[in-house]
Amino acid sequence: MAIKADIGISEKIDPFEAGYNACVQARKNIVDPKVIVIFASARFNLPALFSGAEKAAPDVPIIGCSSAAEITSFGPIRGAAVAMAIGGRGFGVTTGQGGLAQANPRMAGARLGQNLAKAAGTSRGYFLFADILNSDGQDLLSGFREGIGAQGQVVGAAASDDYNFQEVFIYGHNASVAVGLSGLALKGDCQIGMGVRQGWQPIGLPVKITKAMGTVVEEIAGRPAVDFYVDNFGIAKEKLLQSVFAQLAIIYPLGLIMPESGEALTRYPLAILPRGAIRFTAALPEGSDVKLMLGSREDALKAAEEAAVEACACLGRNKPKAAFVFSSIARSKLLSQNGKKEIERIKAVIGEDVPIIGFYSFAEFAQAVSAPAGRGFYNESIVVAVISEQS
């Protein structure tokens, strides 16, 4: 039997019912589901929601996380639970989960990767979902890659909430509490293709990070980091409240200039700290050059299409059977009411009948086996991952 996938969507108010109904719908037409992946609004009581999901599919591994907004074949949706069930003879999965990654994200990522690789044997690719609000996302991904070794591509995203940057929820199969990260290894008669684009362009002259430690940038060009945004936005420092900063920074992140290529890797600022420091989703090394980044709606839509083309190219002549879309919360804000067009562009490439789920995330993962160290972690980007049978 060929790989088959289907999705379920629930907007029930009660979290248990939402999880239950989304899973029932998703597995209804899948004879032998091997895994169910769920993304659900942070408005829910997530432990209760996943309890409902386990009730609907006690015999199937389930993983997932909280989301700022959900993505389906029909376009974006907010305040819902969306699920995808995937099955088929010769297709299999291994799931795993890890502890909170705040103290040592690299070690936490490595431990999960090692456990997954050991349990899965030879894997066709990996999905990774993580909490990066208080840890370095790039370190976590680098550790995960070290753990799985030189096999399989890695795709996934960082869990999000309703744009509050307060608390996210990661679920691992049969976990009674939230975990820091969870993963999925694909096995058997399948292959995964991925594509990633950002659609943000650097503007202005480069400036230097003059003082930083880990994910916290204390000074840019010898001044408190927040002054860089104060100067560019023309807003008095005392008026640049966290809520105002968060909205502006979504559209105007920083771009880390890569010395070897001149490419700008987008890094999203999470919070203003005391004395004008700024905490980012990943490290911005002291001494590195950065630029302000700017996004446009047309560039964002073009990026979605290009990511889908890149993902399908990885499959050769094989047709996608399922698709995951991980799109930055910044893209959701930028596209606003045009969010459905992003999915329409993707469907035009992968096929109108291919089931899609995903969510708007705090960061995106897309790392090929051949990717250089320190790459594969993205902000303000879109990742399209497609699964097909292997020829």
UniProtKB/TrEMBL annotation:
InterPro entries listed in its UniProt record: FIST_C, FIST_domain_N
FIST C-domain domain: residues covered: 225-368
Residue span(s) of domain FIST: 32-224
Top-level taxon of origin: Bacteria
A Pfam entry, by short name: FIST_C
SMART domains: FIST, FIST_C
Protein name: FIST domain-containing protein
Species for this entry: Candidatus Falkowbacteria bacterium CG23_combo_of_CG06-09_8_20_14_all_49_15
